[in-house]
TrEMBL record, chains A, B:
PROSITE patterns recorded: HTH_GNTR
Name the record gives this protein: GntR family transcriptional regulator
InterPro entries the UniProt entry points to: Bact_HTH_transcr_reg, Chorismate_lyase_/UTRA_dom_sf, Tscrpt_reg_HTH_GntR, UTRA, WH-like_DNA-bd_sf, WH_DNA-bd_sf
SMART domains: HTH_GNTR, UTRA
Domain HTH gntR-type residue range list: 9-77
UniProt cross-references to Pfam families, sorted A to Z: GntR (PF00392), UTRA (PF07702)
Organism: Thauera linaloolentis (strain DSM 12138 / JCM 21573 / CCUG 41526 / CIP 105981 / IAM 15112 / NBRC 102519 / 47Lol)
Example GO BP: negative regulation of DNA-templated transcription
Keywords in alphabetical order: DNA-binding, Transcription, Transcription regulation
Gene Ontology molecular functions: DNA binding; DNA-binding transcription factor activity
Ranges annotated as spanning the membrane: none
Amino acid sequence: MSREAPTFSPLYRQIKALILQALESGEWRPGQAIPSEQELAARFSVSQGTVRKAIDEMAAENLLVRKQGKGTYVASHNDPRALFRFLRLVPIDGDLSHPQSVPLDCWRAKAGQEASRMLGIELGAPIIIVRRLLKFATRPVVIDEIYLSGEIFHGLTSEVLQGWNGSLYSLFETRFGLRMIRAQERIRAVAADRNASEALKVAEGTPLLSVERVTYTYGDRPVEWRRGLYSTAEHFYLNELN
Amino acid sequence: MSREAPTFSPLYRQIKALILQALESGEWRPGQAIPSEQELAARFSVSQGTVRKAIDEMAAENLLVRKQGKGTYVASHNDPRALFRFLRLVPIDGDLSHPQSVPLDCWRAKAGQEASRMLGIELGAPIIIVRRLLKFATRPVVIDEIYLSGEIFHGLTSEVLQGWNGSLYSLFETRFGLRMIRAQERIRAVAADRNASEALKVAEGTPLLSVERVTYTYGDRPVEWRRGLYSTAEHFYLNELN
DNA sequence: TAGTGGTCTAGACCACGAC
DNA sequence: TCGTGGTCTAGACCACTAT
């Protein structure tokens, strides 16, 4: 294991990159356990402590989940704990109910300027657009327009969406092998237009949160761009600053 | 060093608590270096590795800052890098300019229901209310109303605010010895009322972000509650989801 | 050159979960 | 009882900063 990388990178980071690579290649699937620290140490010819430090960082990044006495697992969006990782919307009256995703529409198009820039694909490349509603206890709260690369999400149709009973990201993970790692949201305040007011059942002109999200998979590759309008009549966007 | 705490807590966490305590007591002041890992290890009669793990966690929590070859320093809001830690507002046109805080008003009052709940003080306890404007390059972008416990911020006046040339939190830190550790923000969309429209120079009814923030010091003690209205005409609220 | 944090190792023991 | 991750130690060496 060379330590003389062009810009010096400690051994544990090289190990981290190797584990990441195995993860990316699908050697271990979401929800499954990865080999024990001892096994990995032997495989990479380093000490257990070095593997541990690599895994520590990956656990901090929500890529892996440690379970004492059992093993280390590949994080999965199927895990119910992952549900609110990217959804920062909370009912004002503490009532933390399960959101429900209602697909409204799904069609194919060609990437415009914005979509191509956000998704890092060519202008005119095939994309898929999904419109969906997010409900908390029968009440519509978010209307989303989601832009996906047609290449990656080949085979995504209304039927697939209808038939899925969970979060979108868990669908992406199981159906397309795409793991969402991190996201960036840009939030502004806008007035509800006709469409939004009908979908969210609020008066036209009602102030709404406009939330633009770009979601990244391994290697900081953007794979999803979505524009959401959030009704904050009975919910707020909760953010922890550390 | 007992390891048989009621609910088991590893040694490095006990060390962390001790360091935290020294920090809180003011033994080392913001911006100053704390003793070397070896010295702390000797002082607490543990190995350097154990101290290191404690410090690692505190560095991850932005309480300490490590500088290789030099030492470990107490984090400070005077550090320019801390400026955008709690301010997630970014110009739409990349132009990352320095915000300027303009105090408008500062008066004494008694805590109402909301303020007393948010600040964890008694109903009717003395509080100080600050109104201030945040400008980016002469343009007003945020109007804030800030609620502070009169006990803690005894001596805070308009004059003190006027005479300070930096962030509020850096004032709090140097003048009142209060270190802001973490915060929680609740964001909603609202329409600009008369006051806000005048302060932010937008039309009445313009959608604005309403950002309510509770800020905590050591021991998760809430010490500041603020309500801000953000104009998102030329800025957006940026949030990283990990 | 001296002192600091950063990395790496090897081994011992503890806590937890499953069998 | 066994295997896993979690903690703790002690020592060696590397990288950065200052003098």
